[in-house]
Q: What sequence folds into this?
């Protein structure tokens, strides 16, 4: 029982990290970003290259990786997505899909298909009432919670955060205030990419780092956001908890394989019962 | 020299012509009203001025051509637009809405002073500051919208039908406050359906029909014009 609570918390926190960025860029710019999983994979590969090939210390490598992926997200929005904004939304969707596939292929060309190892920052394990948890998982949990908390503070207490919320609620209204919505879209894409990359960096030591590693997280983020309501940040956190714990329970009581079906099943059930998601009204924080 | 000078302003929606060769001027500190029936092009005019819509023709503000500056720079130069339908941020508090009006400003002390001025103008907003904007009544929301535009510290305030759908008593309060805004030195370009109230507070009036200005004059001249009296005052 305790093992489910502890492992579920770690998974849920990482899922929340993935889903929050995915829902943010949808809520603000109405972009359903199929390259979101690519940000996560890029984060993991950046930290791998920086540590294994360039021998950068792990902590510094992690920070650089997150920043690089943020820049990648901003560049993608500026160069590839923005010119398509006047076209039907399907064009943007196809572009994000293309970017996602392209990133995977490039990673495959450079690194090949075998799994890469990223060292853990914390090597020791911790014992919680008989449940053994690796230090890296513990770190992933605390960093995820800290990032989510930081994001909340940023949105609530900064001018830029308020502008992002304003654009998500009424982009045209925001433009009358002199808020340049194009620039906000870029910033949010960068923010969303940074958060996804942070998730990739945090889990890289205990996940296999392979070129296709972004697909499952994309599906998970999608599922969570469907459950929580597209564009709702609190909804995506609740969705992450629901999915993270359901998966953990299934993994412990049945098998790991079965747990991977949970997210797909959750999407189907929610779409049938409540298509808008449980927080469908877009209550951003 | 006028604060805002438009000459031969032309706006299209796709192929459809919405404004054609329109000349208009607002002088420093003046309150100018634009009257016209539904679809005359009043909203289009205000949107062209704040650069929410592309336009052709000359557009000068304070002597400088603003015909091709981006929308946020128009706000920075001192044209603040309180748009049709208010466009508040419904899930943000009244205070956040007001603060966002000052998004482009960095003078914190002056922003705080302007917030006090808005509260002085619309007392209820101080009580409602922590409430979500969507929980306010229509009239109160309109006050937030006007206050938010004032937070940009405009030299020219564009108001698009501020009295629409608002109970009579609040409506009078809103017209009084528009008057007070003008008396504090801000020029106002007011689009209004309620011609009688608009004529009551405006210095000058333009009348629009089908994307053209068909009459212009002082409020007294326009109020005395028979065709205007028939069309807009029903007398
Ligand atoms: N986005 C748009 N696309 C195409 N045509 C438009 C658009 N917006 C307005 N129009 C047309 O332009 C003309 C002027 O519209 P506008 O909204 O400026 O009128 P208005 O004077 O503000 O009317 P109202 O009093 O109803 O607000 C109308 O014929 C309208 O149908
Ligand atoms: Mg209108």
A:
């Amino acid at each position: 029982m305790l093992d489910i609570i502890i492992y579920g918390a770690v998974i849920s926190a990482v899922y929340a990290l993935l889903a929050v960025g995915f829902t943010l860029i949808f809520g603000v710019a109405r972009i359903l970003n199929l390259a979101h999983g690519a940000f996560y994979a890029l984060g993991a590969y950046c930290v791998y290259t920086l540590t294994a090939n360039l021998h950068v210390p792990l902590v510094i490598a992690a920070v650089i990786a997150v920043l690089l992926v943020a820049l990648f997200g901003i560049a993608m929005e500026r160069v590839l997505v923005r010119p398509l904004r006047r076209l039907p939304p399907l064009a943007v969707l196809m572009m994000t899909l293309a970017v996602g596939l392209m990133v995977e292929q490039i990673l495959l060309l450079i690194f090949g298909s075998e799994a890469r190892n990223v060292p853990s920052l914390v090597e020791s394990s911790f014992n919680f009432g008989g449940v053994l948890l690796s230090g890296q998982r513990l770190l992933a949990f605390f960093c995820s919670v800290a990032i989510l908390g930081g994001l909340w503070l940023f949105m609530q207490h900064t001018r830029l955060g308020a502008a992002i919320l304003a654009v998500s609620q009424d982009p045209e209204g925001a433009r009358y205030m002199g808020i340049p919505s194009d620039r906000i879209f870029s910033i949010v894409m960068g923010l969303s990419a940074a958060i996804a990359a942070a998730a990739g960096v945090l889990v890289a030591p205990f996940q296999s780092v392979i070129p296709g590693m972004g697909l499952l997280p994309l599906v998970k983020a999608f599922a969570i956001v469907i459950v929580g309501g597209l564009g709702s940040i609190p909804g995506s956190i609740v969705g992450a908890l629901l999915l993270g714990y359901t998966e953990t329970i299934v993994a412990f009581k049945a098998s790991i394989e079965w747990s991977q079906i949970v997210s797909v099943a959750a999407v189907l059930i929610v779409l049938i019962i409540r298509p808008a998601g449980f927080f469908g009204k877009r209550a951003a924080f | 020299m006028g604060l805002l000078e438009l000459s031969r302003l032309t706006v299209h929606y796709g192929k459809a012509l919405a404004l054609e060769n329109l000349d208009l001027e607002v002088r420093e500190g003046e309150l100018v009203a634009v009257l016209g029936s539904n679809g005359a092009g009043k909203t289009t005019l205000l949107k062209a001025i704040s650069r929410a819509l592309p336009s052709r023709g000359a557009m000068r503000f304070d002597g400088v051509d603003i015909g091709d500056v981006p929308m946020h720079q128009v706000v920075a130069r001192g044209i603040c637009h309180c748009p049709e339908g208010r466009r508040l941020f419904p899930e943000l508090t009244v205070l956040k809405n007001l603060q966002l009006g000052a998004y482009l400003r960095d003078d914190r002390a002056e922003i705080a002073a302007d917030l006090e001025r808005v509260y002085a103008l619309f007392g209820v907003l101080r009580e409602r500051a922590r409430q979500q904007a969507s929980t306010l009544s229509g009239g109160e929301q309109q006050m937030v919208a006007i206050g938010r535009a004032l937070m940009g510290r405009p030299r020219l305030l564009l108001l698009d039908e501020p009295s629409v759908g608002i109970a009579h008593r609040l409506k009078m309060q809103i017209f009084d406050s528009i008057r007070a805004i003008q008396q504090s030195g801000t020029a106002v370009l007011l689009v209004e359906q309620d011609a009688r109230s608009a004529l009551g507070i405006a210095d000058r009036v333009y009348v629009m029909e089908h994307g053209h200005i068909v009459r212009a004059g002082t409020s007294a001249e326009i109020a005395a014009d028979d065709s205007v009296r028939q069309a807009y005052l029903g007398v």
